Amino acid sequence: MKGLSKDRLWSIAVLTPSIILIAVFVYGFIARSVYVSMTDWGNDPAQALAEHPIIRWVGLANYGELFTGFLQGRFRQELVSTIFFTVLFIAGCLILGLGLALILDRNPRGEGVWRTIFLFPMSLSFIVTGTIWRWMLQPQGGVNMAPTLVGGAPSTFPWLSSTDSVLKFDWNKLPLLTASVVAVVLIVVAVRAMQAGDRRRTVVAAVCAGVLLLWALFVGPNLKMLPAPEYHGFNLALIGIIIAAVWQMSGYTMALYLAGLRGIPEELREAAKVDGANDYGMYRHVIFPLLSPITLSAMIILGHISLKIFDLVYAMAGPDNLQTSVPALNMYLTSFRQNQFSLGAAIGTVLLILVAFIIVPYLASQFRTEEGHA
Amino acid sequence: MTATPAQTTPATLPRAGVKPGRVLMYALLVIAALFFLVPVYLLFVTALKSPDAINLATSWHWPSALNWASFADAWAKIGGNLGNSLFLAVAATILSALLGSVNGYALSKWKFRGANTLFALMLFGMFIPYQAVLIPLFQFIKALGLYGSIWGLILAHVVYGIPITTLIFRNFYADVPDALIEAATIDGAGFWSIYSKVIFPISVPGFVVVIIWQFTQVWNEFLFAATLTNTSSQPVTYALSQLSGGQAVSWNLPMAGAILAALPTLLVYIVLGRYFVRGLLAGSVKG
Fold first, then answer.
1. Residue A355 pLDDT > 70
2. What GO CC annotations are associated with the protein (chain B) (predicted)?
3. Which CATH number fits domain B70-285: 3.20.20.70, 1.10.8.60, 3.75.10.10, 1.10.3720.10?
4. Is the ipTM reported for this complex over the cut 0.90?
5. How near does any CA of chain B get to the CA of A347, in Å?
């Protein structure tokens, strides 16, 4: 018994350095960033790099500036861009990855070779990928010249420099839009809870949805975040970057799905066949439901990658391309080019909050089930 | 047995003949492979052209004369950075693999109360956007006097590598039967002798996965490279971004540079692909 406790002490002792390092480098630094984001460090250029800069506490002023300030329209566009980017990137990776995995699951000849081809971009750096695709997407070359190989006319789409954008909305309507979207989600939750017979959840969700809708109808329209309308949407210049990102990362979802497909016991497929299921029915009712946890995992991993992506954008479109910029890139430029540390820290914190929305519930659910078994 | 799309094919087709389903499958595979390989073709073609032969209109054409000098030129520009990256990736990988190994061992074989919660808190560090810690990290590295040196970068990579390396080793050691540990305890072995005599010798596959994963991650990383280093210590990702970002540069140079920068991780992937995929799958947190 004594030896056992000594061993346990050793295990804690072994973990201590890592715990301290993570405590400082992750949690300590996050706290420090949040603190910096609430100061005015760097807002006065003369003070930014001073030996002992005068730093004042300004509360949430930097966040206010980012979301409603006249000069920070770039950040707001980036926030919108990053949402569109994330949705399209995840959709692209999931669809392509699942398709490739389903094909490879049918045991084509040379399966290993195909797999190698689909997965190799994963081993590259986003900077390498970006360098290659920057050349591919030159306005008068690469992809745009591809139609001439089969005798067609060259395409003229300005991949990384397009200034067109679609699905535009007024930033002033953001509270209204957000409230409406959340309300709709809550209504869906309520309907589902009702079908499942969970009365309490039905009532809570329905009441919340009602309050949000009332707010959206009566208070939202009177709220003005900016003095003038400011339109943001999905910039078409991002399409090329999304394609490059899907090129790089879809092999990852393929590997995930393939591992999942290979993990489905053959008996299950046999049983489905015996029960008279055709291919379509088997996928619809047996295989896809079994793959849904993988889809969730992939969405979470891809989502957090895409929210913080910036090296690909940096390499493809350059740091100063307003059409393609994302918050993660802006944070780097704001902090380390313009030395506006507090504003940069605020952008970093916003990013962290976005990522935490995805990651924290995921980690919590993963470990709640595990702790229950332990 | 092979899955056949028999139900969807007309029954009149001869069984031994070419099945349309298989043809369609191979057609789709070829189209997908083109999407993944065409950029590689353009990369090589452009790298092998001489600067005056590079013309946007003929970007697809095979060069009339191969210009291997692009690689020598690119090497002259980023060779030093490749050296930096190699040193950085090797040092950071070894350190984080060792740290991850003992962490994973302690967390999976000597569980204490709250170990899982602690691990979840640790794992969060894997997912944070590094932009959220970048400014304090920069200040800290500067205060240590490591700004502009490769050691500051190594420190950052080792620390932020702890979650993933611990995760991979923890999952790897979870498959080692506890009975083995118990038997060794009865024989009088303690924490360290079990590690050195039982655990470490069977850890080779775990180390391979972690080493491949960390090497690739560290080699490919950009944000820390751009923030914590200066001209003398910049890794190849940063140098490459500067090479292709300039306006006056001819395109064969960044393309050759991209090939040089991609080769090490690509080789690792081609030679040890199985373990690379295992690392990928481990990253998706199957607790």
1. yes
2. plasma membrane
3. 1.10.3720.10
4. no
5. 8
